[in-house]
Structure formats: structure tokens, C-alpha cells
Amino acid sequence: MWRPTCFGQRTLWLCLLAFYLPRLDETTSCAYRDMPKPVQFPGCVPLHGRDFLDPVHDRSNEGYKSTLQICKKLKLASGIMVNSFTDLEPEIFKALKEAQGSQGFPQGSQLM
After folding, report:
1. What is the pTM of this model?
2. Residue burial 77-108, b: 16+ Cβ < 10 Å; e: rest
3. Under CATH, domain 5-106 is a member of which superfamily?
4. 95 CB contacts (<8 Å, ≥6 apart)?
5. Which single residue of 6, 65, 81, 88 has CA 20 to 30 Å from 73?
């Protein structure tokens, strides 16, 4: 079966957040900005929920719901091209491959 490859103009860290957002949504009931402890994503430094991207701060917002749906579909991709390189985010490349079975394809700097 053919599976698409996804291209993103973001860093691999943001891609990893997208993979883990559905799991976080299932296991957390409060607003992310109100979480008492930082979230530990594999291969990353702990991150406070208040530092997440604006679209995911309000879980009742349509923007959050749309972002969550996109994140769920990202798991269908056979690979993800990202604006990064292996030496910049080695632990995140490793964590993404181990946790999701997806391959990140580093593309180096993308200037637009």
C-alpha cells in the first residue's frame, strides 16, 4: 500500500510535538498551559505546556481541534521531510524513528 511522504517547513522538534499531541490529548484533561509540570518528549528537554504553540493552548477552540486532526493524520506518512539536519537534532531523529516507526528526512536549511 502506498503511503505519502510529508514535507514540513518546521524543525524536527515541532514534528515530534505533532506526533505526541494526540497521546497528550488522550492522557491530559486540563489546559496545557495549566499543567503543573513540564512535559518530557523523547529526545527533547522538558517543555512547559504554557510554551506550546498558540493553536493548542485552548483545547475547546476549533484551531486546536483542527491541529489535532492534522497531527493524527501525520502518522499515516511513510516519511517526513523536515527543515533540519541530523547533527542539529540527533536525539529527536532517534526518538521519532523509535517511537513512531517513521523516518525523518533532513533537508538542511530551507530558505523561502
Report:
1. 0.71
2. beebbbbbeeeebeebbebbeeebebebeeee
3. Glycogen Phosphorylase B; (3.40.50.2000)
4. 16, 41, 42, 43, 44
5. 88
